[in-house]
Amino acid sequence: MKLHDEPQAITPAAFHILLALADGEQHGYAIAKVIERETGGAMLLGPATLYRTIKQLLADGWITETTAWGEERRRSYRLAPAGRRAARCEAARLDTIVRLARERRLLPAPG
């Protein structure tokens, strides 16, 4: 998932995690619930996919981990600048695809 000069596709799971973190820090379960809510249940990340993807995003430097201490120790995650850039590149790539689909009448024009 390394970000290069050229925009590259990232997995849907990674993109949705980055989107969920764009509004602020979240713990893993909250990330999964945001994704489920925002996709109307179309994307459900199980624990294995969620935490495997989080581990990769951490390794790539796209997100950072924070630990909150309260009644229990809870790991939360925050979008890093590199992750914000990656999400912007992916959003732009997807926007181009949607524009092409509209030009070819596969999707209706907006409005």
Short note summarizing the structure:
Helices cover 52% and strands 14% of the residues. It has a single domain (12-103), classed as Arc Repressor Mutant, subunit A (Orthogonal Bundle). A hairpin with a 3-residue loop joins strand 2 (63-69) and strand 3.
Write a structural description.
By secondary structure, this protein is of the alpha+beta class. The protein has a single domain, classed as Winged helix-like DNA-binding domain superfamily/Winged helix DNA-binding domain (Arc Repressor Mutant, subunit A, Orthogonal Bundle). The protein has 4 helices and 3 strands. The protein has helices at 12-21, 28-38, 47-60, 81-103, and strands at 26-27, 63-69, 73-79. The chain has a 3-stranded antiparallel β-sheet with strand order 1-3-2. A hairpin with a 3-residue loop joins strand 2 (63-69) and strand 3. It is elongated. The protein starts with 11 loop residues before the first helix and ends in an 8-residue tail after the last helix. 21% of the residues are buried.
Keyphrases for this structure?
Arc Repressor Mutant, subunit A, elongated, 14% strand, 111 residues, alpha+beta, three-stranded antiparallel β-sheet, single chain
